[in-house]
Amino acid sequence: MSPIRNISIYFNEIPSDYPIPGQTLITKEETIDIDTVELNGSCLLKTLALSIDPYLRLQMRETHIKSYFPAYEVGEVIYGLGIAVVVRSEREGFKAGDKVYGLLRHQEYHVAMPDSLTPLQVLPPGLPISNAAMLGVGGLAGGSGYMGYKEYAKAKKGQTIFVSTAAGAVGSVVVQLAKRDGLRVIGSAGSEEKVAYMKEIGVDVAFNYKTTDTNAVLAKEGPIDIYWENVGGATLDAALANMQVHGTIIVCGVMSSYNGVEYAHKNLSSIFAKSLHIHGFLYTDLAPKYTEEFYRDFVPLVATGAIKHNEEITRGLDKVGEAMARLQKGENTGKVVVWVADE
Amino acid sequence: MSPIRNISIYFNEIPSDYPIPGQTLITKEETIDIDTVELNGSCLLKTLALSIDPYLRLQMRETHIKSYFPAYEVGEVIYGLGIAVVVRSEREGFKAGDKVYGLLRHQEYHVAMPDSLTPLQVLPPGLPISNAAMLGVGGLAGGSGYMGYKEYAKAKKGQTIFVSTAAGAVGSVVVQLAKRDGLRVIGSAGSEEKVAYMKEIGVDVAFNYKTTDTNAVLAKEGPIDIYWENVGGATLDAALANMQVHGTIIVCGVMSSYNGVEYAHKNLSSIFAKSLHIHGFLYTDLAPKYTEEFYRDFVPLVATGAIKHNEEITRGLDKVGEAMARLQKGENTGKVVVWVADE
């Protein structure tokens, strides 16, 4: 067969704050001969769906800045978690037609990357939920919510949890787990639409932090036994001011700091004055302990509809740049997935 | 007997940054008749020595700002931990001549305050260490270092600990405990004199953060398994950047934030990216669990000289304001004690 189109997303420029569509990432229309491309012991993948996650912004940095996540190189095709189908394979355990999950280059077709913290894995046939859901509530986002909550919340019925970005892909899972444990849930998000969604999934006190003073809400509805931290900045400061003595803060992300926005916290002294415990975690950190239980106990709840979820699916690989920007600005509703191709 | 002099220290004005001697606190020369003053079931105390601690700055705030520490009222005599001798008593368990430890008003003589988190207690006769040492290495400071380290460090031989304010009353205790456990100790402080003292007590890498870049030192000498946090601000940011994955931060104080100095942290994302655990604590929180062990196992090490300590003793109650300012600015060397009277 002759070469076919292969749209690829390149990292073009380090953003100073929010990523700019068409500038931070650029789309190139390249070609690939899927019959003859060298595999070198690996496999050729056709990308089906890509997960657009907040942490990807942390890879768009100067390469000399150390972090747990490697930096994208300018001029390199970016990569992130996604689902693909194997087109050809020289790799043991992977055969043409297998659906796989792992770190994928943002290309329509590519030879699989070397394995990393998230090795490429073959998904079982007949997933109980859609590809997009497997990338959200059944993947990194849902898994982060499930595993972080299980490991660190140590929740007791009747306690109060405050979840930031409670309408988001991770937050909405934490909200629903907390409700199942009999907790009172305070949730914040940045639009009236998200407030409505928070109420739909059971948040007891749902508010729009852009129009309501977070500190006032927490002062009235707190103290907070558990704070699920996704944003940092002023929200963290308000939470610190309203934590219960011996409270727990679970740090899943500090999204407000990813895009060059600086904030000077005033209430860090609450950490010792209230004897708080703060636990940060990465999905990859807890996955070895919880993956089996997550797929066994939690994903079926998604399949039956007992756990609600929400996706914002954008079609076309060339939409990655826009999707990233929408997510970083909080303009999305639900888990952001770029749908690249049908199976 | 006719009334005698009773110097008293009043809270005069809420400071906007560092407390100003003669303005934040003012000295009044009052009188008291120690033979006739009403005790109302309490006891009359003659103050011997007062502990000047960093946290006292947190009490010098607007009264509407909630905190675990009550705010001083403007126009009120301030109070803090100290040692006194009982002059007269109507209270069971306290008799004239007993030496007591607890929250004392900053007055030469006063009727004991109602009991609080730190109830007044009678000290056993024949203390193994001096009154001043009992207020420092054998009191709140040493106890905070000992208890916080024992509860949260979970140190393993060969690990690296970074101690901020390592020449201070708390930090110097943590340094020496860590050395006894076979740790490699990095210590920071703000003068060459303090660097010399850090070396004297066993700090392996001692540096002056005012003349050396903390981040550069930690990048070279880290990663840090355990960070003992006394200061916050840029030091915390540098520590976050150089923590080991799964590292522990023990928050004893964030002194840089007490005096109106604001700092926007850039590295809070390390909390989740490195799966860090942060534990804040108060002495009063851990004291029920550790007090017996502290006096049994640790204070004797002070008495024999196996644990070194350093005090800056200022004579005269009217020196409290200056002593507070020196401490907040880090101009002191060693535990700050105001010596009010001999026994």
List keywords for this structure.
homodimer; 343 residues; alpha/beta; Quinone Oxidoreductase, Chain A, domain 1; Rossmann fold; 2 domains; 7-stranded mixed β-sheet; 6-stranded parallel β-sheet; 9 helices; 15 strands
Explain this structure to me?
Two copies of one chain form a homodimer. Chain A folds into two domains: 4-136 and 310-339, Quinone Oxidoreductase, Chain A, domain 1 (Alpha-Beta Complex), CATH 3.90.180; 140-283, 3-Layer(aba) Sandwich (Rossmann fold), CATH 3.40.50.720. Chain A contains nine helices and 15 strands. By secondary structure, chain A is an alpha/beta fold. In chain A, strands 3, 4, 5, 6, 7, 14 and 15 form a seven-stranded mixed beta sheet that branches. Chain A is globular, with a radius of gyration of 20 Å. The mean pLDDT of chain A is 94. Chain A binds chain B through residues 58, 66-69, 232, 241, 245-246, 251-254, 257-258, 262-266, 268-282, 285, and chain B through 58, 66-69, 232, 241, 245-246, 251-254, 257-258, 262-266, 268-282, 285.
